[in-house]
Write a structure and sequence with these properties.
The complex is a heterodimer of chains A (384) and B (118).
Chain A: H1 2-5, H2 7-20, H3 25-62, H4 78-88, H5 99-115, H6 134-142, H7 145-155, H8 159-190, H9 195-200, H10 206-209, H11 211-224, H12 249-274, H13 285-306, H14 312-340, H15 348-369, H16 371-383
Chain B: H1 2-29, H2 59-87, H3 89-111
Helix pairs in contact in B: 2-3
């Protein structure tokens, strides 16, 4: 029975023992590294394919349709059919495009989100590299994808592509600030950037202690992912398909892949930092981790089935005029609560109570601060 | 610790190989029949007018400037947040001043109209 609970570390130990009889120590370590990285990559790719199916199925359900149901049982083989189609589709490069940048861009958008999985703890003892700068690494590496988007949009030499890329960059840099700031409250409690430490300090999931931070993180990561309601960089009603207008075949598939892999990264980081990571009763740790990830992903898809798209000015204004000030106030609130109730020495229940008071005061302050601007905006909308 | 960074290098190689491998496979099996009309850029089906590489709306660059300032400031906040537990009352006042400066900077940009979409 115990084997099921720590299957990851067990398999690594058994493989290491087996390889140790035939190879020198450094070779064993290298083989183990490559195998574990390949395992994570395969897991991510399979999840990506499944998510494309799941998203279509869930959105179809919400719109009272059936969704893919022809290829395989319940349409489960649809992603495979899509992959074959993408593979065999002709790839068109515009003659006026900047060829080098145009061809490098798809690689540059996929690689960074894949690299972010290095610091994600998938279960107890199932983390590829528990860096002491873990969360900083994940945030920094996943923001690199912006570069690929700008390259794609600019090199296509298409007006719609350029507008889409510019919108994407403006939006992603704007929402990166509240995202980083929202993680700060948690880091102040844990006193560490390492993902393993963050999970082990969550006797109470941080979503209970830091609900405001979680909401800000969630909103800004949807904006980072360019998903509905923040999908104006690829708004098909305005600018064709945004930065990937000119891409077809496998290169287009790379943009889709980067999008879904980023969704998994964002859900995984959110789970680790706010939902207690792999911690949970009875079930094995990795099952808990997957369950929590899929809850976040389902909410993302739910948003897509529910909310209409925002305007550019509304989107940027929301980031700078609401998310950033509220995230800063949240840091201030956390600072005071941590000072009054030190996290390592007080009972979890006392902490929950202290943070509840802090969060209620924060909510009242925010509501008072934004009462007049909100009323003015509402009046402007109804007057126009 | 060094082994941890070695695995990052492995990750970088694999993360690069995944898209390159997929694109290379597609390159081998896909058809390739270009013609002048097909290779034009797509702008809603009509013939394109004008050049895409132009001077762009300045508002985007202003957001980029505000972002650089705030990103550097948040980078300074990270080490402080990690050490917060160990610093005691000094950190609380220091934090108040720093967050106040950040908020003042944001308010300044706001009042100057840098956050308005023009």
């Amino acid at each position: 029975m115990q084997f099921i609970y720590d299957i990851g570390p067990r398999i690594v130990a058994i493989t290491a023992q087996f390889l140790g009889q035939h190879f020198p120590a450094w070779a064993v370590q290298l083989i183990l590294m490559i195998v574990s990285v390949a395992t994570i990559a395969v897991f991510v790719l399979i999840t990506f394919m499944f998510l494309t199916y799941l998203e279509r199925k869930i959105i179809a359900r919400m719109q009272d349709r059936i969704g893919p149901n022809r290829v395989g049982p319940l349409g489960l083989l649809q992603p495979v059919a899509d992959a074959i189609k993408m593979m065999t589709k002709e790839d068109i490069t515009p003659t006026v495009a900047h060829r080098a940048a145009y061809n490098i861009a798809p690689v540059l958008v996929v690689a960074p989100p894949l690299m972010a999985f290095a610091v994600i703890p998938f279960g107890k003892g199932m983390i590829a590299a528990d860096l002491n700068i873990g969360i900083l690494y994940a945030v920094a590496i996943s923001s690199l994808g912006t570069l690929g988007l700008l390259m794609a949009g600019w090199s296509s030499r298409n007006k719609f592509s350029l507008i889409g890329a510019m919108r994407a960059v403006a939006q992603m840099v704007s929402y990166e600030v509240p995202m980083i700031l929202s993680l700060m409250g948690v880091l102040m409690i844990t006193g560490s950037l390492a993902m393993g430490q963050i999970v082990s300090k969550q006797a109470v999931p941080f979503i209970i202690l830091q609900p405001v931070a979680f909401i800000i993180y969630f909103i800004s990561s949807i904006a980072e992912l360019n998903r509905t309601p923040f999908d104006i960089p690829e708004a098909e009603s305005e600018i064709v398909a945004g930065y990937h207008t000119e891409y077809s075949g496998m290169k287009f598939a790379m943009f889709m892949m980067s999008e879904y892999v980023s969704v998994i990264v964002m859900a995984a980081v959110g789970t680790t930092v706010f939902l207690g990571g792999w911690r949970g009763p009875v079930l094995p740790s990795y099952i808990w981790f997957l369950l929590k990830i899929y809850v976040i992903i389902f909410v993302l898809m739910w948003f897509r089935g529910t909310l209409p798209r925002l305007r550019v000015d509304q989107l940027q204004g929301f980031a700078w005029k609401f998310c950033v000030p509220v995230a800063l106030l949240n840091i201030f609130m956390s600072g005071i609560v941590i000072f009054l109730v030190p996290p390592n020495t007080t009972h979890p229940l006392v902490q929950v109570a202290a943070y509840a008071v802090g969060n209620i005061i924060l909510a009242i302050v925010v509501l008072l601060l934004y009462r007049r601007p909100t009323a003015r905006a509402a009046a402007a909308v109804s007057g126009a | 610790m060094l082994a941890n960074y070695a695995i990052l290098a492995v990750f970088m190689v694999v993360a690069g190989l995944v898209p390159i491998g997929a694109l290379a496979t597609a390159w081998v099996i896909r058809p390739h029949k270009p013609n002048p009309v097909k290779s034009e850029i797509y702008e809603c089906g009509i013939e394109t007018v004008g050049e895409a590489w132009v001077q762009f709306k300045v508002q985007y660059y202003i957001y980029a400037l505000v972002f650089v300032i705030f990103d550097v400031e948040t980078a300074f906040l990270y080490p402080w947040a990690v050490a917060y537990n160990r610093l005691g009352v000094f950190a609380l006042f220091e934090m108040s001043i720093f967050v106040a400066i950040l908020l003042a900077g944001l308010l300044y940009a706001w009042r100057k109209g840098a956050l308005e979409w023009v």
